[in-house]
């Protein structure tokens, strides 16, 4: 399958789904009252999908890899926010575990794409022969 748009990427689709889950649990009354933590948690989730998209649009592997590392870092940030939200009982143990698991799985997917891009003979649209 040829990937023509960032929306075609499984990692972007997974990041979008995770972001929707974060927004859903962040709407819970208890969690929603801590505006700062809710905002940071949502921003971390959105950052993952946004950096995947922005890196892809840069049209070369070096830049894409750079943005994928930022997205991967945001996965870690998200997991950290989820830990504290769970410990403050803003999230149930089940919700916290599910979100951390999804974020960790996405982080692994991003790492695998980074490894692939580093060894790929195709270096991006800008490097293709016309």
Based on the model shown, name its key terms.
mainly alpha, 130 residues, single chain, de novo design (two linked rop proteins)
Residue runs with pLDDT of under 50 for 5 or more positions: none
Average of the residue pLDDT scores: 92
Annotated CATH homologous superfamily: 23S rRNA-intervening sequence
- Rg over CA atoms: 16 Å
What share of the residues does DSSP label as strand, in percent?
A: under 5%
Q: What count of structural domains?
A: 1
Helix content bin: over 70%
Please give the oligomerization state of what you see: single chain
The strand count comes to: 0
The SSE order reads: HHHHH
Count of alpha and pi helical runs = 5
CATH topology: de novo design (two linked rop proteins)
CATH class placement: Mainly Alpha
Give an account of the 3D structure.
This protein is an all-alpha fold and 130 residues long. The chain has one domain (6-119): 23S rRNA-intervening sequence (de novo design (two linked rop proteins), Up-down Bundle). Helices cover 75% and strands 0% of the residues. The protein has 5 helices and no strands. It has helices spanning 10-26, 29-32, 35-57, 61-87, 93-119. Helix 1 (10-26) runs antiparallel to helix 3, helix 3 packs antiparallel against helix 4 and helix 4 (61-87) runs antiparallel to helix 5. The longest helix is centred in the middle third of the chain and has 27 residues, at 61-87. The radius of gyration is 16 Å and the shape is elongated. It starts with 9 loop residues before the first helix and ends in an 11-residue tail after the last helix.
């Amino acid at each position: 399958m040829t990937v023509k748009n960032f929306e075609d990427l499984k990692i972007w689709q997974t990041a979008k789904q995770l972001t929707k889950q974060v927004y859903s649990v962040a709407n819970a009354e208890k969690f929603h009252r801590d505006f700062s933590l809710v905002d940071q948690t949502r921003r971390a989730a959105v950052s993952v999908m946004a950096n995947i998209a922005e890196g892809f649009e840069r049209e070369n592997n070096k830049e894409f890899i750079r943005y994928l590392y930022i997205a991967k870092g945001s996965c870690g940030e998200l997991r950290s926010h989820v830990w504290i939200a769970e410990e403050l009982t803003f999230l149930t143990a089940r919700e916290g575990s599910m979100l951390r698991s999804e974020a960790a799985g996405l982080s692994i997917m991003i790492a695998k794409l980074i490894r692939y891009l580093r060894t790929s003979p195709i270096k991006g649209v800008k490097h293709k022969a016309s």
